[in-house]
Design brief:
The structure is a homodimer.
Chain A: H1 11-32, H2 35-41, H3 46-52, H4 56-74, H5 88-105, H6 108-120, H7 126-149, H8 159-179, H9 186-204
Helix pairs in contact in A: 1-2, 1-4, 1-6, 5-9
Chain A binds a DNA duplex through residues 8, 34-36, 44-48, 50-51, 55-56.
Chain lengths: 211, 211
DNA sequence: GTTGTACTGGACCAATCGGTCCAATGCCTT
DNA sequence: AAGGCATTGGACCGATTGGTCCAGTACAAC
């Protein structure tokens, strides 16, 4: 498979570029992010940039890929068919912990995630991240169906509504966390992660009265 | 108090302007919203526009004010100090119903609300809506504190996080509901409304194990 | 009819945007 | 030394942005 032209860039310069572009995209969204600002900040000329990237979109996608690589392999490992009523919640809890560790060890991810959320509710820009997003919601639907089949998840709400609420809750928690990331120690982050995980348990567990 | 110059506009044209500008701002955010697009869509010339508005920001704020007027009077009527452990949830339930009615009867509000959420995470734009937002979240915080003082709301999560989650949940439910409005009968709507209100009860009620 | 005021059409402005193009580098190979 | 190729600086492009300016028009008051 042919590697991206930007691989030829000096490693340091490449890393710096993605760092700056990630920050710019996260701060302003895709359209309002200024390519001129990015390249001038790292002292790169227009022609140099367009030697390594085909356009602004290319840079955006490369910025995502470069940071998302590690995480895509780590958390998809969960085997949905192997989930049982006993190990469902423990498995999800463990996965959440691993996800948190991944975020802790690769700070680029935080910036990219901010970027992601930023672009998601912008109709003009969401098509750029839509494929990633659909991938995730599809996976989430599978988990929900499995949990319902095992009798551990509520079934009184429409699935699409449940997904929307879960996403909204997760996103708001993530955003809250991301905005205060540097204010917290590792331990505090883990505590909050545990407390908020309980929120999902609470939301998904069927009410006692129902079947 | 001196009224805004735009009051002199023909009533129909004024309403149409705010309608179009609201949609534009909601769809693209403040900065990416195109003033040229707005005025050309309603067939207004630049000079005419600037005769009634000082600039783009002025139009934005007027668009908000025009739509927010009705709601500001309706739901603030609740008397926080009069809330007791017994009437807390019933009062909130009633208020939620009233709020829903207000939203349903003034569709402009939905657009403006989308505009709000859109601008909230955009560092470049949030200062425009920050005052309104703080007003609302401040009110919400009062309710939360009252509920906590009465022992009816959980106290184990940071207040700002709790507010963010409540807002996110409310928004996602609202959007889900509105997108499928015509698919549901009146009974189904009431059922969903009740079920989703339960979600808030569930989220806010302290866990049995804690104090 | 003349004057004053409210309003409008449209040319125009500087700034910024993403993107193109080409001549000039530097460097490696022969 | 010479040729070839990767890389670069920077002028330039068309489009779009929010905003300005002014000449003119419509209309009411006198």
């Amino acid at each position: 498979m042919p590697q991206h032209p930007s691989q030829k860039l000096d490693a340091n310069k490449r890393q710096r570029l993605f760092q700056v572009s990630g920050a710019e995209f996260a701060a302003h969204g895709f359209k309002l992010a200024s390519l001129n600002r990015i390249i001038s900040e790292i002292g790169m000329s227009k022609s140099s940039f367009y030697h390594y990237f085909t356009n602004k979109t290319d840079l955006f996608l490369q910025t995502i890929d470069q940071a998302m690589g590690p995480v895509l392999e780590s958390h998809v490992t969960i085997d949905i068919d192997a989930l049982t009523a006993e190990n469902l919640w423990p498995s999800l809890l463990q996965m959440a912990g691993e996800l948190m560790e991944t975020f802790n060890s690769t700070p680029d991810l935080i910036v990219v995630t901010r970027m992601f959320y930023r672009c998601m509710d912008a109709p003009d820009e969401c098509e750029l991240v839509a494929p990633y997003m659909q991938n995730f919601t599809g996976w989430l639907a599978q988990i929900i169906q499995r949990g319902q089949a095992l009798g551990k998840f509520r079934t009184d709400l429409p699935e699409s509504l449940l997904i929307d609420i879960l996403l909204a809750m997760g996103m708001s928690i993530d955003r809250w966390m991301l905005a205060r990331w540097d204010d917290f120690s590792l331990v505090e982050r883990m505590n909050i992660s545990r407390d908020t995980f309980d929120l999902f348990v609470q939301l998904l567990t069927p009410k006692a009265g129902n079947t």
